[in-house]
Amino acid sequence: xxxxxxxxxxxxxxxxxxxxxxxxxxxxxxxxxxxxxxxxxxxxxxxxxxxxxxxxxxxxxxxxxxxxxxxxxxxxxxxxxxxxxxxxxxxxxxxxxxxxxxxxxxxxxxxxxxxxxxxxxxxxxxxxxxxxxxxxxxxxxxxxxxxxxxxxxxxxxxxxxxxxxxxxxxxxxxxxxxxxxxxxxxxxxxxxxxxxxxxxxxxxxxxxxxxxxxxxxxxxxxxxxxxxxxxxxxxxxxxxxxxxxxxxxxxxxxxxxxxxxxxxxxxxxxxxxxxxxxxxxxxxxxxxxxxxxxxxxxxxxxxxxxxxxxxxxxxxxxxxxxxxxxxxxxxxxxxxxxxxxxxxxxxxxxxxxxxxxxxxxxxxxxxxxxxxxxxxxxxxxxxxxxxxxxxxxxxxxxxxxxxxxxxxxxxxxxxxxxxxxxxxxxxx
Amino acid sequence: xxxxxxxxxxxxxxxxxxxxxxxxxxxxxxxxxxxxxxxxxxxxxxxxxxxxxxxxxxxxxxxxxxxxxxxxxxxxxxxxxxxxxxxxxxxxxxxxxxxxxxxxxxxxxxxxxxxxxxxxx
Lengths: 428, 121
Known about the structure:
The structure holds two protein chains of two kinds.
Chain A: E1 2-9, E2 12-15, E3 20-22, E4 25-28, H1 30-37, E5 43-51, E6 57-60, E7 62-66, E8 69-73, E9 92-98, E10 100-105, E11 116-117, H2 121-125, E12 132-140, H3 146-165, E13 175-180, H4 184-190, E14 196-204, E15 210-214, E16 217-218, E17 225-227, H5 229-233, E18 237-241, H6 251-255, H7 258-265, E19 272-281, H8 285-301, E20 306-310, H9 316-330, E21 334-341, E22 362-367, E23 371-374, E24 379-382, E25 396-398, E26 404-407
Parallel strand pairs in A: 1-9, 2-4, 6-24, 10-12, 14-19, 14-20, 20-21, 21-22
Antiparallel strand pairs in A: 1-13, 3-4, 5-12, 6-11, 7-10, 8-9, 15-16, 15-18, 17-19, 23-26, 25-26
Chain B: E1 5-8, H1 11-16, E2 21-24, H2 28-40, E3 43-45, E4 63-68, H3 74-93, H4 101-120
Parallel strand pairs in B: 1-2
Antiparallel strand pairs in B: 1-4, 3-4
Helix pairs in contact in B: 2-3
Pfam families (chain A): Gly_reductase
InterPro entries (chain A): Gly/sarc/bet_Rdtase_B_asu/bsu (IPR016585), Gly_reductase_pB_sua/b (IPR015417)
Protein name (chain A): Glycine reductase
């Protein structure tokens, strides 16, 4: 399987009479877009806003962030199982509007979190403040239930990204990257002297606002399975997942998984990157046992020497993470775990809700309980009242001047466990 | 299925699962302590006590499914004790506040979907 990603640099977004890409600017015909994404009769109103890095803008509550793309060659299309058919993706050529993103916001439940500040200290905590974002704020009819509302908003986001992506179809990319994934037997034979490394990709899968989709299938219904990394890079995995905002993988993050990119970087040099095992994080302990058993079994069948395991979320997924760690270690497969921490505001509490001696190589994406004060912004898109202690369960406080004191767990992507975040530790 | 018990303080669970054994308690802390007590009486956890990602203490509603077993299940004991520790940690920084009815119901729905997905599988 060979995938070419043609990256088209976007340095500005503007509303215009015609949707097109010209001179690194994405022009959007607002009326045409609204007609396409507003076709669902359950939608009452959609507002579109363009925001740029450095703008005095706060977006809250963010539901998803999506990168606009289009398939230009080869089988399948964007967002398989939702926008395109169930055809396999991960080969051919896909064009990407690099630097642009679709951000969805809306009132699904009365307590909300998920902040993107486009400037100020908050902007440094979210990876999404550096993009030119088209923000889609969508209201639905009053009688729509929470599940349906989430689905409407998810589809509006995907339709918007798909519409914008089409503008990239005939544009010559600024950069062309090629990724290949060979059948396992061939891949193993390619670098016999290098350790065989796999990636265990844990997907949050528990219910409303906690779901992930693989080719349109709810991940809680899957058994762990093998995937080509190029399928994931080509949008096979989508997010329906936004609480807590700090450590949930937005669709953008699945499309641009840094663990996969990094594993490709030294493939054939330091190790042999064999492929990806996706697994879920379900509610019951029996499911957790079954999925971790399958994960370890697949890793053994692939003949892995080592595996990188990334978690999504906190709390009960710590149990999945530790089960994966223990069971891989029991088969003689070394692990590196990637997680984040809820170590209390002073950082003194136990970081995870589970632990085991096999977890002896762990990367942290940061402590989500750290507190930050976000200054007021000139413009708020969405529903800032959700940050108010009186209106919601949000663990922070909204001051009269519009500033918010809050744990960084409320900031979208701040402690992302794939490393798609800005926090780092440095020794001077 | 008939042996299961759901320890809950979520009224929506009581409404929805009339056919199951429900032990309805007053508050969040009681859900955890009652579950821990049952683990000591040879019940094991079927659902994870920290299911979902709304932070412990932030969501005032919680339901935990248990089933009878033949001897003390140490994994369940460890898991419920770790969960109680996390709950207490989050409670420390959590400002107690009265939620509106709508927000209460949203939190109940979140808890209900977690239990729904557990019982479905």
